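Run log // design_07
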């Protein structure tokens, strides 16, 4: 009898344990589902899609695209207190366009090339005057606003590339170089491959092989080839970083930025741009080298910018004409991408802007089969048909949205053909 009583007690205890465990599991499940619904709800509130999710993860409300201005940034890649890479990068969230312009390390910053000195090269200015010195001369050469800078050293580069699980890149040539004084050993084979942090350092710092050979003329020899590889690799890195799988690594990436990267871009400013960057298509990235030629002056090899060609390139890369972007009288359009193809957003934006419309807000939303043109402020049928013709598709509908600041909302569907 006592054995039976003990067994009953045991069974009761086991049932109680199971009941408690079941309750804990149910509560845990409710929390997970609840947080999932909350994340989904906030994501939809912040514009939906990857952009809305990223905005939610960053812990902020969506900043309307018309309030986010184009930004120019001086990017310096450094190693052992030397500036190996000098670039000016620009991003315009309104048009989803970006530019990268390489500044050759030997660019002359003096007044008389006949008396040129090595310290007057722009990379030497970094050693003597730091970031502010380089920024001052770059602004003079390009004649643009340049308030922000990012300085990335070797350790930061390695950690960033490894954090996003490497970057697939087509290495243009075999690279074979050894320099004990710099503790630099470069051994890369040509071809498409996964580049981790260590390989990225080798790729970006390569200038020439042990036998003196460098990039071939058709690719862009010496520094021309080097800056081209740097720009192409940065473009590939941007593309990899924007991969949805990296969204939840954003805090680790930002931690690396805070620890290893010197910049005057604060977190609040960065948060305005990051959600819009997920809609960026690297096909809209312009890249190039400062126009000019190398000359031997006073026994020193220097690079002399071509002023006329530089002005034309700056106009193309960095000058955003406000009248083309914000036309007060133009019909305002909110554009959401539900096609599942990232490039469609920039394609439709460009078409509408060319037709004189003001695209004030862009984002992504859940995928839909049909493109929809929603009349929110009683625009004419003729106007809606015109938009339908520009897109080559679209169902026209109406919505009494008196609170909307936009005249029309367009949801791009899978039927849209770029």
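design_07 sequence
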């Amino acid at each position: 009898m006592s054995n039976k009583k003990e067994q009953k007690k045991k069974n009761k205890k086991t049932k109680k344990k199971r009941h408690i465990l079941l309750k804990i599991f149910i509560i845990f499940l409710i929390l997970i589902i609840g947080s999932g619904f909350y994340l989904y709800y906030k994501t939809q509130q912040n514009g939906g899609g990857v952009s809305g999710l990223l905005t939610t993860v960053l812990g902020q409300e969506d900043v309307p695209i018309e309030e986010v201005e184009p930004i120019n940034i001086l990017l310096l890649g450094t190693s052992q207190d030397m500036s190996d890479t000098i670039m000016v990068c620009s991003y315009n969230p309104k048009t989803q366009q970006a530019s990268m312009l390489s500044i050759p390390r030997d660019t002359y910053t003096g007044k008389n090339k006949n008396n040129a000195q090595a310290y007057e090269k722009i990379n030497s200015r970094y050693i003597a005057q730091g970031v502010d010195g380089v920024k001052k001369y770059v602004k003079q050469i390009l004649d643009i606003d340049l308030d922000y800078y990012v300085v990335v050293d070797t350790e930061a580069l390695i950690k960033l590339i490894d954090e996003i699980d490497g970057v697939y890149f087509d290495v243009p040539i075999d690279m074979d170089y050894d320099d004990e004084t710099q503790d630099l050993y470069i051994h890369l084979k040509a071809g498409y491959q996964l580049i981790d942090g260590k390989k990225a350092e080798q790729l970006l710092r390569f200038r020439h092989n042990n036998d003196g050979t460098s990039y071939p003329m058709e690719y862009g020899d010496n520094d021309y080839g080097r800056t081209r590889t740097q720009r192409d690799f940065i473009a590939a890195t941007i593309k990899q970083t924007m991969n949805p799988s990296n969204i939840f690594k954003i805090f680790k990436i930002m931690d690396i930025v805070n620890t290893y990267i010197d910049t005057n871009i604060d977190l609040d400013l960065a948060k305005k741009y990051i959600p819009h960057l997920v809609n960026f298509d690297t096909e809209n990235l312009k890249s190039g080298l400062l126009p000019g030629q190398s000359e031997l002056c006073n026994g020193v090899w220097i690079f002399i910018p071509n002023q006329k060609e530089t002005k034309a390139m700056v106009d193309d890369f960095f000058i955003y004409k406000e009248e083309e972007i914000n036309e007060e009288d133009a019909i305002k359009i909110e554009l959401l991408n539900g096609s599942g193809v990232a490039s469609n957003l920039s394609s439709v934006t460009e078409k509408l802007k060319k037709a004189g419309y003001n695209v004030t807000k862009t984002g992504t939303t859940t995928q839909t089969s049909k493109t929809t043109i929603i009349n929110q402020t009683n625009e004419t049928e003729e106007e809606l048909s015109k938009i339908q013709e520009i897109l080559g598709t679209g169902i026209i509908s109406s919505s009494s949205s008196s609170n909307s600041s936009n005249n029309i909302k367009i949801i791009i569907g899978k039927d849209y053909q770029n």
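The first helix runs from residue 2 to 45.
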